[in-house]
């Protein structure tokens, strides 16, 4: 078993806490991460996909700077999900994560004042590092045309797919390519929550006109995690005007989300209509050949050790979730080889990854269900993991527990631990309640940007299951199992633009 270099890792953690401040470090890193270092690589293990994605998006640069200051050298970062860390998370910490996201505009205001709108960033993804295959070739082709400033480029472009399939990498690559080949192009890349933060700050500081000038005159607006705008009525209204202004000038809008536009949940119908009026394209889970190609490419980046083809094949066959899991397994294998002073062989890979593969497979279904339900209701997984019991959160949490029980092999206690260390009796009661409501074909209500919405629970569950089915290797979910039936493609191209002549730009 590998014992990390404790002094170095402790120093890195202290440096991160110093840079972020004790409160933010406590919310996102204490008990929620585990660092492992080897061969110039730092593996950041997290309890679930949501925390993994949040830390990777918001704190990658901080972590890299901390390692550089402690060790005097740059490092390769790898973010992976390790479900065993769930037991260390406390309910109070999970509540704090949801509270942090809800109050993020106030917490980030000082940073935005210093850095301007949007905050400057170094985007990591490049087209050269993006493995193209059947799962993503249409999405890459469409985005490439925008990067090349081609006259036939579509707009808007809406890319959707599960966690870790390469959406953020593709959007990063677009921004980097525009800077490299078209330096005169004015573009901005930001996430849905960052757009919200910038809008709220502009309102509070009476700089709304500056905000509008900044975003409405861009050549390309790139927004990742656009589903974070769900349930934010005022922000959606502002984004609608921004969208209309850019679109009317014939400029480009590229969006990414975990779900198809019509499955995001409480989202403005006007915005959804505009999204589907352009190109909507899905990125699927990589197939075996793509996974092998990804592993070969990443292997060249993280180690000089030769990795036999049979080892690449073994990992690719046993990990079918997403790119992050592939990278995490590869990095663990390299580290195991380094500390054991053994060459990388198939036998070593089986020993080193046995526990990793078992845990990864167990966590996959819950992470997908967790994220999909949260996205549909315009929430975050952090909201589902809290102890809050508002009407919308309680309903979403109950549906997530019901689907977890229906579509995974997890026990009630295991589901409870995953959903924020809930007692197993809470999961049992939630399942009984949802099952009764489904049996009675009940109407349920929840809060949306337009007010209280009433829907049949059966319809909500069916839509969420349809989305989960798309993540399950292109099949759909029926009767509690994944069925290998054909799913009609969601990529659509409209020949006409939406009529915006009667919509005033605020």
Summarize the structure.
This protein has helices spanning 6-20, 22-28, 49-71, 91-102, 104-115, 137-147, 167-181, 192-204, 208-216, 233-248, 269-276, 288-302, 309-318, 323-340, 346-376, 381-385, 391-407, 412-418, 424-439, 457-471, and strands spanning 34-38, 41-46, 76-81, 157-160, 187-191, 220-224, 252-257, 279-282, 443-448, 451-456, 476-478, 481-483. The chain is an alpha/beta fold.
Strand order of the largest sheet: 5-6-7-4-8
CATH superfamily of one domain: P-loop containing nucleotide triphosphate hydrolases
Question: DSSP helix count?
Answer: 20
Beta-strand share of residues: 5-15%
Overall helicity: 40-55%
CATH topology of one domain: Rossmann fold
Regions with little confidence, pLDDT below 50 for 5+ residues: 105-120, 472-506
Instruction: Categorize the overall geometry.
Output: globular
Q: Roughly what is the average pLDDT, rounded to an integer?
A: 79
The number of strands is 12
Structural class: alpha/beta
* Radius of gyration, in angstroms, nearest whole number: 22 Å
Biggest β-sheet strands, sense, barrel: 5 strands, parallel
**What is the annotated CATH architecture of one domain?**
3-Layer(aba) Sandwich
CATH top-level class of one domain = Alpha Beta
User: Separation of termini?
Assistant: 60 Å
Written overview of the protein:
It is a single chain. This protein is of the alpha/beta class and about 500 residues long. The protein contains 20 helices and 12 strands. Among the domains are: about 1-90, DnaA, N-terminal domain (GMP Synthetase, Chain A, domain 3); about 120-280, 3-Layer(aba) Sandwich (Rossmann fold); about 375-475, Chromosomal Replication Initiator Protein Dnaa, Chain: A (Orthogonal Bundle). It has a 5-stranded parallel β-sheet, sandwiched between helices. Strands 1-2-3 form a 3-stranded mixed β-sheet, with helices on both faces. The longest helix has about 30 residues, at about 345-375. It is globular, with a radius of gyration of 22 Å. Mean pLDDT is about 80; it is low at about 105-120 and about 470-505.
